[in-house]
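Data card: per-record layout.
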Amino acid sequence: MSTPWLKPYMPRSLYVRAALILVLPVVVLLLVVGVAFLQKHLEDVTQQMTRAASREVMLVLDVMGDAETQQQALAAVRPDLQALEMNARFLGFNEEPSLGGRRWYDFIAPQVEADLQAMLPNLVAVALPSGQEVRLYIQTNLGVLELIFDRRRLSPSAPHQLIVTMVFFAVIMTSISFLYMRNQLRPITRLAEAAQAFGRGRVVPYAPGGAVEVRAAGSAFLDMRARIERQMEQRTMMLSGVSHDLRTPLTRLKLGLSMLPEDEAAPLKQDVDEMQLLLDAFLEFSRGASEGIPETVEPTALLEQIVKDARRAGLKAELISVEGEGTVMLRPTAIRRAVENLIGNAVRYGNRADVSLSISPKSFRIRVEDDGPGIPLGQRTEAIKPFSRLDPARNQNQGSGVGLGLAIVSDIARAHGGVLRLSESERLGGLCADIIIGR
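The structure for this 439-residue chain is written out next.
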């Protein structure tokens, strides 16, 4: 059943959701049992006991009704008080009823007081300071009478024991369940961490564990990771082998063309040079992000060095801003190649390359902007594909290349668990290329 309205209020973590599934039924059960116990049992018993105690109090008041003084009233009612196990006295002229404080967990006291008020019309106040005694203050013709007797005659002793027992054992059993649940969720967390690390280009040790279903998912992940690694290795070896094998006939062609007259060999040499450029780019694309191993890198220092090397090579590049700080896990050689490709494209199609870096707790972004013609919105997806060449307006300054620059950058970004995004530069009006990688 689809419940889109409920999604914003649901926790995103599997651990929190499992905890909610575990705790919610326990809380509902406690509430249902507690309410049923209070309403169906404890309240009825308390009402019956309070009615019986009220009749005894009315008997005492009836015996005292014919007395003319307080002393006569107390003397007349003394045998009944002894039989009923009560103590009685009249308050002094300026004496106020001593109510005291009520216990915070005495949740049945309000009902006791309400029942007494309903059954004893002349009741002035009720004092329930503890579970041992109760003090009733009743207005009579001779003054305010204080009656003291056992609290257990009005309500069951320690009525909160059932609630305390339920809550105590619920907390213990829930804590044990939490420990067991965390132990069951740990293999899922390890699997997620291994999959996330592999998506970012790192291979971390992982062994399947936990329940049967989790073990099956872990084994499937290991098989998938092995197949992907094997395919990547085979692709790299195949492309590298093809590129290497083609270098030999190209070298022979260059030697053969060197023996021809200059005017005849010039067009053929241009074709051979283009083939050589294509092979170099093809070999660079085949390496992708597999060169080097992930290591802890300070991206600010890495970008400063890349920009410095680009300026030494005669490219107009500048690191204009750095936001945030910290280190990240990267393949520095692959990231260097990606940024150098973006700078090269920016200078080839424009006049300058402005590089910026932004680091946040969850990700970091490398941005390269140029003042060239940019890429139209409808062609940006096509521009990332290998061997894709766009409108000739992008090639107005220099040669067109082989169409692998942005494809290499996108491949390196994906190998790090990130993405390459193309947009229009608000500062320079040309292309804005962002490499966004999670930390």
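Known properties of this structure: The chain has a mean pLDDT of 81. Residues 14-63 form the longest helix (50 residues).

See the next section for split statistics.
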